[in-house]
Amino acid sequence: MAQAISARGKLAARLARHSTGIIASLLFLAPIVWTALSAFKPAAEARLPPLPPWPTTGVSLENYATLNSFGDGLWVSAQNSIYVSVMTVLLSVIVSVLAGYGFSRFRFPFKDLFFVLILSTIMIPFQSILTPIFLVLTRLGLHNTLTGLVGVYVTLQLPFSIFMMRNAFDAVPREIEEAARMDGAGNATMLLKVMLPLVWPGVVTIALFAFLGAWNEFLAALVLMTDQSKFTLPVMMTALQSGRFGAIDWGAVQAGVTVMMVPCLILFLALQRFYIRGLMAGAVK
Amino acid sequence: MTTITASTTAPPRARKLVGAGRRQWIGLIYVAPAVALVMVFFVIPLGMTAWMSLHNWPLMGEHTFIGLDNYWAILRDTRFWNALKFTGYYTVVVTIAIFAVAFPLAIFIEKPRPLTNLYRTFFFMPAVVGFASASLLWSWLLNVDSGLFSPAAYDLGLIDRKFNLLATFQPAFWSIIAMVVWKVAGFTMIILMTGLQSIPQDLQEAAVIDGAGPFARFRAITLPLMRRTLALALILSVAGSILAFDQFYIILRGGPRNQTLTAVYWIFNQSFVSFKLGYGAALSMVLLVILVALSLIQLWLLRKPEGLD
């Protein structure tokens, strides 16, 4: 009898648990799924009631086409975003791997000062130094260029990614290096062939954070990119949504938001454990 | 094989000295690109912010030194003080709201059970979407005519007139809170989860044997042992909220009636809409001092309490 009750109690608890989980999941996922589905509605359907969320009169790419006809087009902004994000990933990985290795394995003048300097940038928000960044870029001839934006984004990533890489290199036993040195490995071989494979998970983590950071950044891109052909996706979409190019087409907004969200979601789903690793590193620090 | 013997038999001190002499400059070369970037895009702009804040600095034309005049002007800038007040209010409300949602979620997904990983992933997904994307998405959801909430409620017969959530302060403010909680709660949840997982299981079990109920255990074990994690989650939430811009710019444009201007929004406005760069720099300095002060308080919160691990 008692056993039957407790079994029933367990079942009830499990049911309660999963219904909570499912409802909460729906709340978190609904806006994403809803937007992605609505983006495939034909334009005429956008004036109909918002329920149901999926297209009822056939799947259409009309919204994407409309979006592409705004200003310089979806594709130009998407290319800008891809370029900026990929360059940010490449450069922040190169710079952080080098610096992480340097800070982990060498002694040199001003080492501690430089390390603290780089880490302390996390305390001061870039939002408060945006005006002079604008002037510095102008002075360097990088005003209104994607290269300038990449420079800013890479710098923003440095405190996190250098900290991450230094810890990754610290975790590699020195014996491995000494053995390779004895086998005649030079500096380049040492870093590329011996060390890099061992710190690879750290590299994936910083690359992922660099991509998400650059792909999603808004304020710096809004301020530094004045030429419409240089807009990244968030800036282009904001111009569209504010009605700067005529009446707001919400179907096109949904299509654009979908384009902005999908790469982040795919990368996250594919590289979840690297993302969590990065969060932990941040949390332990 | 030979390498191991060679490295263990070599006199350690001599080897170290040779290494040190040769290695020094190489290390500097490795960190040079990072240091150069931080100099160009951080240290110099930071110095310039301080310097510019003492000038009348229009976008075009000569800038002139005016001493502390910008700072005196800030004292009379009611818009800025209102923006600061609003930012503070928003920070407090949104942080409480985020914790109120994230803490139960963290407890819910803490233990590995069937489907927990799936729930974790689902709850977290909005957190990887950018703030700009999330804001654009919600600007559609919240739109009075073509959005979801108001038209759907109207179509379902729940309201008899479509209601514009963004037209007046209270509904607009709470709409933003809802959006930010949706976007950020998963992130805070994961951080709190790591804290929960680091609590030794036997401590909880011992407390159960001592007859402590769930609430007593939460107060006596969970909360004190999560002090550092809670402080970290708090820091991230507070720092992020004080710098809030995207959602207020994209969804509300500072409206209704400039009631939702945040501090960063006002700095953006003065610097890049009115092109008063010197004044914008002075405003930035004020915000920067506030944030550094908060960071220091937070570091003080983060230091390990005595007697614990």
From TrEMBL, chain A:
Where this protein primarily resides, as one coarse class?
membrane
Where in the cell? Cell membrane
Q: Where is the ABC transmembrane type-1 domain?
A: 78-271
What membrane topology is annotated for this entry?
A: Multi-pass membrane protein
Q: Which UniProt keywords apply?
A: Cell membrane, Membrane, Transmembrane, Transmembrane helix, Transport
- Any one Gene Ontology BP term: transmembrane transport
Q: Which PROSITE patterns match?
A: ABC_TM1 (PS50928)
Q: Does the keyword DNA repair apply?
A: no
- tRNA processing in keyword set: no
The UniProt similarity line reads:
Belongs to the binding-protein-dependent transport system permease family.
Tell me the InterPro entries matching this sequence. MetI-like (IPR000515), MetI-like_sf (IPR035906)
What Gene3D superfamilies has UniProt attached to this entry? Answer: MetI-like
Membrane-spanning residues: 21-40, 82-101, 113-137, 149-169, 190-215, 250-271
Q: What is this protein called?
A: Permease protein of sugar ABC transporter
One Pfam annotation reads BPD_transp_1
Instruction: Name one cellular component (GO) term.
Output: plasma membrane
From TrEMBL, chain B:
- This protein is called Sugar ABC transporter permease
Gene Ontology cellular-component terms for this entry are:
plasma membrane
Is Transmembrane helix among the key words of this record? yes
Q: Enumerate the InterPro entries for this protein.
A: ABC_transporter_permease, MetI-like, MetI-like_sf
Topology in membrane: Multi-pass membrane protein
Question: What region holds the ABC transmembrane type-1 domain?
Answer: 84-298
Query: What transmembrane ranges does the database entry give?
Result: 25-51, 89-109, 121-141, 172-193, 229-252, 279-302
Question: What is the scientific name of the source organism?
Answer: Rhizobium loti (Mesorhizobium loti)
